Amino acid sequence: MSPAVSPAVALGGVPLDADDGQAARRRRELVQRAARRSLRRRRFAGRTGVLACLVALLVGLAPLVAELGYTVDRGVGGLSLGFFLHAPTPPGVPGGGISTAIAGTAQIVGLALAISVPLGLFTALFLYERRGRLAGVLRFGADVLTGVPSIVIGIFAYELVVRGLHHFSDLAASFAIAVLMVPIMIRADEEAMRTVPVDLWEAGVALGAPRSRVARSVVLRGALPGLVAGNLLAVARGVGETAPLLFTVAAPTAAMTLLIFSEGSQALPAAQQTAWTTAFVLLAFVLVLSVASRAVAWGLTRKAR
Amino acid sequence: MSSISPGRLRSSDPAVGVRDTLARRRRGSRGRVYSASRWIAAGLFALLLVSLVVSLATGADQAFAHSGIGFVWSGTWNPAASEYGAGILVVGTLVTTGVAMLLVVPVGLGAAAFLSELAPRWLAGPLSAAIDLLAAIPSIVVGLWGLIVLSPLFARDVEPALSSVPLASWFFHGHAYGPGILLASVVLAVMTLPTVVALSRTALGGVAVADREAALALGATRWQVVRRAVIPGARSGIAAAITLAMGRALGESIAVAMVIGNEPSIPHSLIGPGATLGSAIINQFAEANPGLGASSIVALAVVLLALTVAVNLGGQALLRANAARLLTRERIPS
User: Fold this and answer.
1) Band of the pLDDT at B52, cuts 50, 70, 90?
2) Does the complex come out with an ipTM higher than 0.90?
3) Whole-Å CA distances, A174 to A7, A221, A261, B70
């Protein structure tokens, strides 16, 4: 199709090959000229628009690439086996590592997972098997909680756990991280379960299997890749959180993100190096989790085809 | 969902055995444990939601009892004089988020349009996946980069340059510190960009093939298809993307606290220091006087909660409206 012709036909209303006198030919020429001009103008606008979008993409990518590149550049230099295995040293003493921060993060997030994974899974099962007002309210609650800033959750954990137990503790931090992850897990779990056809659930129940068996062998089995993917994404978010830990843990070296915050705010070159290397390790871990989550989800869609 | 009821059966009926087995199984310990654990989980989650509201409300009680609802807009934050109000911090939060959105929306939309509609596939696929991944960068890392790399750059080059532009200098006058409202907005923009791109890209890709074909059939150029058919068709999805990014920017605290300069006073210039609700909570928490001071910190969290929940619910409603509309139409095969 040549775009130059069709507007002429539409505008002039005269078949292009008809020759019925001077006036029609004149009219046809005018229309064709207008069409050519219009197309030129639209092509120019199109090129400008596409260029503007390309520029926007490059402008957007630049800081992201710069940030990643800088973190890798600064972070890799400080990597060593001792960095992972040694405890932090006081300022001025070389050879310190971040073993306590890694262990702290692992402990906080591990305990948070022990709370949030079962809670998320069973709440999602509840939402999956049940409709009605209560399920609607809980789903709405999960949506609301997903959007609550992590710092507000931190204050909540402080009010409830720290003041309740009268001291700062990793337990309070785990609670805060669990509260952050649970709504993400509930919605991701339920969405994964919904990919299992209802017919299969009904077939299982019709065979006389107890609901627990249907849930285990049909729903959870079918939704497994989606469940793993959703929960991994939630972990990636939980590991990278800083604000809730500020109000809950007992020591500033107790988690990787807190260490980045405290060391990064100091001007000492050694502290800066520790901050960047920790940032690199954290970033690598979070990106690996996200890639793993996507790979699992991708495996799911391929198997479904 | 559906409830299985065998109906009335006579005792001679072989189905009675089945019914009894079913009933026994349902009463069996495993079934009971399963059923109970779902209810317990749902109950615990409901309890969690209630206790979030209750404990924040009791924590903030003293502050609201002291200043009433005026706490939200009262413009002084002076712990030394026991004067607490969220007004300046609310303004700071809205200004930083607003500037961040001004920066991120054109860039994010343009990038999304390019990736979804204009770029060749071999480029768009990997690039989109990479940008999706970048949404997972922890905010502390972005904050650290803003503090160490951007802040000196802003103090030396960006801010003096901006304040020397004739008309713009009205917004950018004053001493170039580095940390300030503008830097915080840029950090927020970088942080929310992957979200805006990923969600708008999904919205653009969901526009029906028929809409594109109709525009092409009318003689539209490729750009006109994007501009006149695809972007209007994805309007609610794009609005959702922007709203959700805004929710994240409003609630971000740690990265903002690292780069905003932390001065709870009325901002006179975008390059001057400021404070947001989130950054103030982080900075004031440790020094808060017990009693009214501590309660005011919790009250700040309550104000922030109300602000972000309202914005996020709006965004999620837009997203659902968009999904519902798309479900009734043919989708682009991918």
Assistant:
1) very high
2) no
3) 66, 28, 19, 35
CB-CB contact of A101 with A259 (8 Å): yes
State yes or no: pLDDT of A15 exceeds 60. Answer: no
What span, in angstroms and rounded, lies between the C-alpha atoms of B74 and A125? 46
Helix residue ranges, H only, chain B: 15-27, 29-67, 87-113, 121-134, 139-145, 151-153, 159-164, 181-205, 209-217, 222-224, 231-233, 235-251, 254-259, 277-285, 292-327
Q: Which residues of B touch A156 (CB under 8 A)?
A: 51-52, 55-56, 301
Residue pointed to by tokens 């103030």? B280
- A177: its two tokens: 């991280």
Is the pTM for the entire model greater than 0.80?
yes
Contact A211 B251 (CB under 8 A): no
- Identify the CA nearest to B197 among candidates B250, B247, B244, B150: B244
Q: Which of A145-159, A270-284, B268-282 has the lowest mean pLDDT?
A: B268-282
Are A229 and A294 within 8 A, CB to CB? Answer: yes
Cβ(B206)–Cβ(B234) under 8 Å?
A: yes
Residues of B in contact with A229 (CB under 8 A): none
Query: What b/e readout covers A258-275, taking b as 16+ CB neighbours within 10 angstroms?
Result: bbbbbbbbeeeebbbbbb
Amino acid letter, residue A185: M
Tabulate helix, strand, coil % of chain A (nearest 5).
80, 0, 20
- CA-nearest residue to B243 within chain A is A147
Q: What is the DSSP letter of A94?
A: S
Over pLDDT 70: what percentage of chain A?
A: 89
Name the helix (H) or strand (E) containing A262. Answer: helix A256-264
C-alpha B88/C-alpha B82 separation (Å) is 16
**Nearest-CA distance A124 → chain B (Å):** 8
Residue A11, number of CB atoms within 10 A of its CB:
16
Contact A134 B137 (CB under 8 A): no
Confidence of residue B57 (pLDDT cuts 50, 70, 90): very high
Distance from CA of A277 to the nearest CA of B (A): 11
pLDDT at B302: 94
Task: Kindly state whether A80 is in contact with chain B, defined as any CB-CB distance less than 8 angstroms.
Answer: no
Give, in words, the CATH class of B73-327: mainly alpha
In 3D, which of A159, A189, A192 has the Cα closest to residue A176?
A159
Q: How many whole angstroms separate alpha carbon B72 and alpha carbon B300?
A: 8
Question: Which residue, among B128, B219, B222, B238, has the nearest Cα to A50 in the 3D structure?
Answer: B222
CA atoms within 13 A on the CB side of B137: 31
Asked if residues B270 and B99 have their Cβ atoms less than 8 Å apart, the reply is yes
C-alpha count within 13 angstroms, C-beta hemisphere, residue A295: 6
- Kindly list the distances between the CA atom of residue A141 and the CA atoms of A34, A138, B42, B50, B307, in Å, as whole numbers in the listed order: 59, 5, 11, 10, 16
Percentage of residues in chain A having pLDDT higher than 90: 50
Distance CA(B225)–CA(B216), nearest Å, equals: 7
Q: Looking at the partner chain, which of A42, A71, A123 has a beta carbon nearest the beta carbon of B224?
A: A42
**Maximum CA extent, chain A:** 99
